[in-house]
Amino acid sequence: MTHLVHTTAPEWPFPAAPEDVKDVIDHTLKNEEGYLDIARVVIGGFSAGGTLALTAGASQPKGALKGVVAIYPATDLSIDHTIRPPASISEGNSNPLPPWFLKLGYRSYISSTTDVLDPRLSPVNTDTSSFPERVLLIICEEDPLHDEAIVLVERLRIAGLQVDLKEMPKMVHGWDKEAKERTLAGAARHEAYETVVDTLKIMFQ
């Protein structure tokens, strides 16, 4: 397992982060130490990391990646969330990604000269042939990124890819990071992580 802390905006806007991911995958596939099974390389991430995982195949030869696991990723960075209806939030929950925050984050990451159709930017614009044979998306019902993820899932399934989708009812973006044991959020975290483990076992077969 390799853990990547990629460069972030605004200091390092797009395409710095996907280039970091490409460098790590390239190094892994070279397998200079000779102890890796490069036929079973899987990439995954949370939030922006999930976005980078989903677009990673655009910078790799077809078949280089065995699978992708993306947990509450952004899949269409062209969306202006300030003009869309906000996600419904249950009593006791709060939205960690208000529209103004998403807009600020996207503006920090995407420069005025960036081609918004660049396949490394938004998974919805990544050619379906660039995705690995199996994809797992875990998304949250009360996440403003929920609906765009559904669009991506449908697009990949139409293309014939094996896409596993797990929706977490009443959960918000990043809920698992603050979830406490013996709570609904804690139980949801265990369920989501168990799904990841089970899916990885299948991907590594």
Automatic annotation (TrEMBL):
The keyword Hydrolase applies. Residues 8-175 form the Alpha/beta hydrolase fold-3 domain. This is Alpha/beta hydrolase fold. PANTHER family: AB HYDROLASE SUPERFAMILY PROTEIN C4A8.06C (PTHR48081), ALPHA_BETA HYDROLASE FOLD-3 DOMAIN-CONTAINING PROTEIN-RELATED (PTHR48081:SF8). One of its GO terms (molecular function) is hydrolase activity. SUPFAM superfamilies: alpha/beta-Hydrolases. The lineage of its organism: Eukaryota, Fungi, Dikarya, Basidiomycota, Agaricomycotina. The keyword Hydrolase applies. Keywords: Hydrolase.
